[in-house]
Sequence to fold (659 residues):
Amino acid sequence: MARGNVKVKKSTKKFAKSGAQDREIQYRKKEKQIKHDMMDAEKRRIAREEAEEKEAERKHMEDVSRLDEIDPEFKEYLDKNDPDFGEAMEDDLAETLAPGEEGDEEEAGNDLRQDLVEEWFESLVSTNSLRALKKCIAAFRAAATQGYLNVGESDREGPSVTSTELFSYIVSEATQHIPNSFNLILERKKGGKAPHKCENWEKVRLFVRSYATGVATLLASQGLPDDLATHVLKYTIPLVEHLYTHSGASRALLKGCLHHVVQTNDKVQLMAFLVVRDMATPGRLPPTFTDICMKGMYLTFVKNTRTFTFETHSTVSYVMNECVELFGVDLASAYQHVFFYTRQLAVYLRTALQSGAGEEAFRHVYNWQYINSLRLWAMTVAKYHDEKELLPLVYPLAQIACGVVELFPAPKTFPLHLIVLSVINYISRTTGTYIPITSYVLRILSSPEFQKNYKTGDGKPVDLMFMLRAKKGDIANVSYQSSVFNEALYLLQEHLAIHSHSVGFPEMVYPVVARLKKLSKEVHGPKWRQAVNTVLQRIKNNTQFILAKRKDVSFGPSNVEKVTAFEAKLKESGTPLAKAFAKEKERRDESRKMRLEALKGGARKTVDEYADDSDSEEDLADLAAAEDVDEESEEQEGEEMEESEEEQEAQPPQKKRRK
Fold:
């Protein structure tokens, strides 16, 4: 009978396993079909836009051809004052340099000559005619299509550039003069009406699209020198407002700029971001393009945060700053993105917290992409918390952060706990919200690992900001334990210093004091015991300070206005714990700066410093003075999260059962 029961149990388990596999297959098929449908919809949209533009061009040419019958006087006026008006729309701009055109026998051939190109640009600057504009754009398109790395190839179809000097000349002259020519032809003054509302817009509409497509192609090419890329991006900003009616060219240009946002050169990064920010500014392009820019910027950030090491932290922090700055352009649109992606983080966390969750569900949370995304949204909400749009998202972010700490209680994940707790302290300090973390910090300090007598290690401090999990051998390392213990005490002091001006501080710290007194007798080592006693003394001094101040007041806790004024006055004057922590923070930051400078990388930016440099273009320029860093090779861990970011709706990851 017992054997029969065992067989039934095994068959049931086998059936359940088979059913789970079938559901996994069905889910992946459905996910693949959704991606396929989205790609088809995007292709149909692009094809529809191109067809509409071609139809508009055809109608324009029909109207021009019927001018003799409809309005002969206006046709005579055009022939006299602008003979190139109809001709400029007849042929594709890429065919301008083709041989066989009357009067252009010397232009025949596939190679562009320096003297001929210089003549075209001189004509464009002096006469500003449509014919000269057409030739200059055609030369620029030829150079952009060829690319810097392919300069000198003779087997190309169509016009080609034979030298890097000529390539640089064409690109620099075209980007500098062509956008200005558009404004001159439109007779548009600075600050005037939008280009697409000008009377002469139809004259330059196709030219704008062709030139913008060339710029996008050039920015997306490989091997473009940094100085040339900076020049192109600098003169692309005046072009943005001309792209209101060209959504396809706008998307291509945005993609090229996002490619340079994560480059190692600081000036290229800065100029690329300024173009993206200008495209996202409401009123410059259609309203929907603000959302497109924000989404593209965030996905670019996620793709480049798979690792967070000493070599990559400068790039990660720079792009994080840019994202925070971009979301401040339109807070109403920013709320939609912050809410959507914060909800996605919550979905991953909820799936991992469910009983029986597999290793795959944990990996969706246990990676740098998830942690850096949490940092980004914490910075965004904290920076704009004074605005009513983002303030309601403080509580969800705090809940997610606390859930991440609860997900991994093992000692090997203490570095992850400390990183997330620092994010919580940052939110609490900037928004003035009380988010209790003492239980999490005391759990780390009370770990049995700190009560054992380990003697391994070299005694040098370990930088915990670049690790999520300690290796098995590091747990028994006294250097690792000292770093974890000191960092936990530092975060506890920071949390208490943030609320040290509260009228209820003595009651708030009562359980903390009781646990620290017990901990001072349990920990091993005189240095740790001395550190705990130092924190206890600081808490005691601040408690006595608050009690002394409370004796002089004549109102009760129910009088909210007077309590708020009392706390504001104490915060402005400073409390003993806040002053002591400020000195502790200064010593800690200086020590870390010296340690990182010894590694020839400069000081690493903390969460506080991330938000300090994102207020203006001058601040971004100062931030761009950091040293160049090499991009690390992308790791496989966290790829599932990147794919799911590109979905239209957040879907919880499926559980992956172990064999």
Observations:
- The chain has 27 helices and no strands.
